[in-house]
Amino acid sequence: MTELISQIEALIVRHWEVLYSLLIVVGLAIYAAASHSLHQRRHPAAAIAWVLGIVLLPYVALPLYLAFGSRKIVAKRAARGVRRVAAVAPTPPATAARAQQLGMAMGLPDPVAYEGLSIHEDGTQALNALRCMIDGAKRTLEISTFVFGRDVLGDEIAERLKQAARAGVRVRLLIDGIGIYLGGYPDLNGFAQAGVEVVRFVPPLRSPKRGRTNLRNHRKMVIADGMHLWCGGRNLAAEYFEGDPRPILGRKPWVDLSFDLHGELARQAQSQFEQDWAFATERPAPEVAVSATPSPVSGAMAQLVASGPDQPDDTLFTLLVSACFTSQWRILAVTPYFVPDNSLLTALSLAARRGVDVNLVLPARSNHRLADFVRHRQLRDLVAAGGKVWLFPRMIHAKLVLIDEELALAGSANLDGRSLFLNYEMMVAFYDHKAVHDFSQWIEVRRLESVPYVARRPGVVRELAEGMLLWLGFQL
């Protein structure tokens, strides 16, 4: 034993300069990683866990942090490709004006005109609109989805896309690299043979330089000829539309929200798709021309709200918190999963305490039991502040937030940490009264079918379990 210690001491003496340099490098790496983790907005428990892991187990935690720890990719990617359309618009109401100004300050495209907004009442109407858009495309079709089902709906859409490609339309399909496995792996060879270009967005086990595995593309949109946009919360799988009637593999339809429109807003969505496609294919993002001369805009206006790792700011989260603080009389929201961070929950609760009518519609039971369990702590706090929570009897997958009669945010993002801070998401902010009114009617119909949530005081075991699951279940 004494001899072994002597050998180790001799080894240290001979190579002390190398060991000293190695310790300096490791120390600097620990400092840099810990500092980076603390400066990225995340759940406090997540930040503490990363810092403790990096300090106590650097050789394990540092590689994991490099692979999963950062929430943002290259901020320049967003600035380089965002389509900015200078517009001279009518003066909007106060809440809408603040939202527009805040969005543009964070680098979002300017509000632009759109026409022909159609909010789909059910899956059948949504599917018919999607069929018409695909079949009517003359030049280009861009499709971005998280899930592409291997079911009756997915098979039909796949066949229509193949027919469009055979007819000379350039068809590009962007599927998330994890979501592609969730609905049954689609027939990529069949797409390729028909001329459909398919790219997986950041597949697993990919170089962290090209996207981290826990940062998923949750955006959902279909753009035809750069002028027609179909958008919302629906994935391209049967349960999001009419269900699957097959006896064993069949799925009942969920309640979801989507819409279609045409106009300049569709061009903005196409520009966003180009950025996502360029990132997924590891090619340079296309340069987007900027109009130097303001153009007058009248009529209905909307603004594309992209959120996620490609944005330097947490755009959607910031807009939601700001809108809650500026709301005057009503906040109406529907989401399948409600696990917000403390800032958003506080903004909603304070709005309720100062007399704003805060209503939240959720499924009584969602498809994620863990989210259903941990949401009760936030729901109790919101109800205690004067908010109203409504439980819909079926699975509702819609994502929609309304502020007063001035702002409607509809699209792909849930009110949880993953959508607000990790996923690539896309919402559309509508600023005209008719659109806001129509979206509010959509929620009101579902609210009338719901029952009030009754907050019950949790027992000691449940209180501990909720806290533990919230702490352990944070999104890294």
Supply the key terms.
16 helices; 476 residues; alpha/beta; 44% helix; 15-stranded mixed sheet; single chain; 3 domains; globular; Endonuclease, Chain A
Please explain how this structure is put together.
The chain is an alpha/beta fold. It has three domains: about 1-70; about 75-95 and about 110-300, Endonuclease, Chain A, CATH 3.30.870.10; about 305-470, Endonuclease Chain A (Endonuclease, Chain A), CATH 3.30.870.10. It is built from 16 helices and 19 strands. The protein has a 15-stranded mixed beta sheet with strand order 5-4-3-6-7-8-2-10-18-16-15-11-13-14-19, with helices on both faces. Strands 1-9 form a two-stranded parallel sheet. It has a two-stranded parallel ribbon with strand order 12-17. β13, α13 (about 370-385) and β14 (about 390) form a beta-alpha-beta unit. α11 (about 315-325) packs parallel to α12 (about 340-355). It is globular, with a radius of gyration of 24 Å. The two termini are about 45 Å apart. The relative contact order is 0.14.
